[in-house]
Design brief:
Strand content: 35-45%
Bound molecules: copper (II) ion
Largest sheet: 7 strands, mixed
Radius of gyration: 22 Å
Structural class: mainly beta
Amino acid sequence: MLSRRSFLLSTLAASTALPTLAHSQNATPRADDAPPTVLRLERRSVEVNGKPASVFGIRQPNGTFGIRTEVGKRFRVRVENGISEPSLIHWHGLTPPWQQDGVPGVSGPPIPPGGSADYDFPLRFGGTYWMHSHWGFQEQLMMDAPLIIRDERDRADQQEVIVMLGDFSFRSPEQIFEELRKGDAMPPMAGMPQATPAAAEMKGMGQGKEMMAPKSGSMSGGMPGMATGVGKPDLNDVKYDAFLANDRTLADPEVVKVEPGGRALLRVINSASMSAFHVDLGPLEGELIAVDGFRIAPVKARRFPIAVAQRLDIRLAIPRAPAAHPVLAKLEGENKQTGIVLVAGGAQVARMPGEASMASPALTLDLESRLRALSPLKPRKADRVHTINLTGEMTGYRWSLNNVAWTKGTAPLALAKGERVELVLINKTMMPHPMHLHGHEFQVVEIDGKRFPGAVRDTVLVPPGRRVVVAFDANNPGHWAFHCHLLYHMEAGMFATFRYV
Ligand SMILES: [Cu+2]
């Protein structure tokens, strides 16, 4: 078993310049250094549907899941691997030096059982982020936690409520992946005509007038998961046993006391491996003030879509009358739901069913097309454009980018320091793909040919048949992952890297 020291040395061997790992090399910390926050990777038990389940967790020694810190501070963390297998934690949405990004085989080696790794970098911006393992299928087993960076948006008179969404199966992730590969659910062939989710768009929550891709030939014949009609997207190809909010189902939801007449900030994190939701506030109107941590011109609504790995910051004014206010998350395309309950005053909490009376529609880009960044990128012509087709093959659940299923030997995509880069993401498949870029925030600048100064974020949904363009500045040299955040798509090869120095 590797010691922590040999892990650090092997990290060093992988790279010549590691200024930000300097702290871990110091035998004695400087006097002005606070000790690092320790995060322990651990096994733990949770109860789901009345049955015990062994999952993972990321906790501080005092029991706190994840980290809550402040903008301007350094992110000084020691991760201790207390499980019996290797692991490595990715700080989703942060922009660390690339060696500290936590992607095994790209950023550095995994932490062996019993080992630890140190992290130290400045926090440039605040917001709602999260952390999760990038090793194997550990994310499906809840190796994830909130990563909250407070900034001027946080107010003393505002109660923070974190809602971490998840999908859960009593089957092992390996078994789930095996079932997918055997063809219980198969993506369409690359290059085949693509149907569009027109029906779902019509039923969509928003009334946006966005462009739709033209409807073309149906792929639904013989496609599992598509029996409900022509032209619908293929959603939810893993059948889960439960959907969780803060580790719990609606049979026994988390109940959070809030102040009647007070303010709350919901920090919703979709840490599910494969499931997108509609956050449903019932009769309450919320104000969406940030996506993926970054501020937007506020949008008021009662329902907000959230794709896998995305975050929503929603301000709520709690009514004065005593009442229970469920905050539900409804699985897209189905009637399954999960959530928590906000209780103001002495109100009774009524039992809520885990299934809604109606199925939710698929997520659309209606909201995305209406979001406007409060701090957009400086307008600038792209120095480099990468067109990235989101692709899939018929056999064996093979997902890919530009028809390449990533392996360690796949060449990185090129870019150069200082460039404005645009990624043209074209979904040639029947499934929606939430695409995530590591180490950089990007701005959504185009949907289906229409340019607009959209949200700055780190994960964008590309529904079937749609074309989404994101722009970013190549200002953080290194070797970075870019991938679909659906866990089994990523594992199947829907993954690429960028490398520049
Ligand atoms: Cu995908």
